[in-house]
TrEMBL record, chains A, B:
One of its GO terms (biological process) is lens development in camera-type eye. This is Crystallin, beta A1a. It comes from Nothobranchius furzeri. The gene is CRYBA1. Signal peptide: none annotated. Pfam families: Crystall.
Amino acid sequence: MAQHNPNPLGPWKITVYDQENFQGKRLEFTSACQNVMECSIDNIRSLKVECGAWAGYEHSSFCGQQFVLERGEYPHWESWSGSNAYHIERMMSFRPICSAVRFCSRPNHKESKMMLFEKENFMGSQWEINDDYPSLQAMGWGNNEIGSMQVQGGAWVCYQFPGYRGYQYIMECDRHGGEYKHYREWGSHAQSFQVQSLRRIQQ
Amino acid sequence: MAQHNPNPLGPWKITVYDQENFQGKRLEFTSACQNVMECSIDNIRSLKVECGAWAGYEHSSFCGQQFVLERGEYPHWESWSGSNAYHIERMMSFRPICSAVRFCSRPNHKESKMMLFEKENFMGSQWEINDDYPSLQAMGWGNNEIGSMQVQGGAWVCYQFPGYRGYQYIMECDRHGGEYKHYREWGSHAQSFQVQSLRRIQQ
């Protein structure tokens, strides 16, 4: 399992389509796309991730709602959106998640590491994690919010609701210096501190 | 972390409301409810899981779409539905997932065990798993389908799409003898063999 990429072009590959169910105009990418309209398609309506982990965005220039995209097939908007508070069926830019760790045997899984803080600005009680948590409350976290986060290794995705549902917030050790001091730094779609599940992003 | 339940009534507790955002008529349960209409509410529109892992169902008598419900707060239908092919905002019955394993330190996590088979009726190539897989293809599974499954320990939830999205299929070692020979045995909402992510249910 050390090598998942049979493609010599590099560790990342995504194929996007301008119609649902892998129909219509088709484009392959091995690196970031800042604006699909510059590639003469008006919107992405289905996609296949063939290599690596990617972040998709509602707007161009990596803005708006975030969608973590791992290897597999996404035939329509709902297959990557998760359950969201607002349904804008749009994905206009995407990029590789470079800090996502390689999936490998368990003994190495500590490459992914994050500190959770009860309050913003790294205040209040704290908890170090290196595993996936489908319910933070079941695993001992006191409430349905996280005040701030410090990613010390790997890439993570946080969710509003238990069981990996709702808004997705992608957190990476190599962006913002891994520091996410306030929900305003989680993405423009974040409107509260609510996080009830989170997991590592592996590729 | 050995004991998550401060409530002497037992290891399971769920509170349901007939309006969104934990408003309206409120009912507490510590065991299964076969039909919420028999409790004088027409539908569940928000809920809090306070203890244990639960399975929610679209229809009475544990039929229709399935929703895995772990500890935390679900303020509206979209917070538990995931991204689904059809949106019927209805949850009419629910029950504890008795075989969900206790969350505990890693050395014991092998209590959850499942065999995946390429073809229906436990045919074709097979793969034993005891961990969570946000992308089966990234982890080495050959395609976007699973033909059949045999749950040897614990409870699992399978999803149509990568990253724990789409239809949810709850699989338990103590139901059907843990055997799921064909997608027709996954639930009435299953219309294909498509499974692209799966994970253990812990409580």
